[in-house]
Write a structure and sequence with these properties.
Blueprint lengths: L2 H46 L4 E4 L2 E4 L11 H13 L4 H8 L8 H10 L25
Amino acid sequence: MTAAELAGQYIKLRDWIKQEQAAFDARLKPYKEGMAAIEGAAQQLLNEQDGQSIKTDQGTIYRTTVMYPRIADAGLFHDFIVKKIRYAETDEQVQEALAFFTAAVAKPAVQEYMETNGKSPPPGVDVTFAHNTNFRKPGEK
C-alpha cells in the first residue's frame, strides 16, 4: 500500500470506530443511568440501616471505603518527610518515612535533568523512548 492508502484506510477505520463507539455509548446510556439510580437507592438503604452490607437471595449489597490521597501542599509534605528522615533514630524510622513515596518519577524533572546533564538520566532511573505513528486528516492541526 502507498502512504496515501495507509493514511486513508487508517483514518477511515478510526472514524468508523469513533462513530460506532458513540452509538454504543448512546445505547448503554439509559442502562448506566438505571444502574446509577439503583446504586443511589441501595446506598440510601445502607445508610438507613446503618450497615455495611445487606445480604439477599438475589445478591449482596455492600459498601467499601476507598481513600484518595493527594498532595495539597508539596513543600509542606516534603518538609514533613525531610524532618522524619533527619530525626529518625533507626533505619526502620527512615524506611517508614520513605514509605510515603512510590517508585514513580516526575517526567518533567527527568527531562530537565537530562537536558542539563549530557542526556544522562538521574542515577537509578532508566529512560526509554518510544515512537508513535499518528495520522491526521488533511487540513487538521
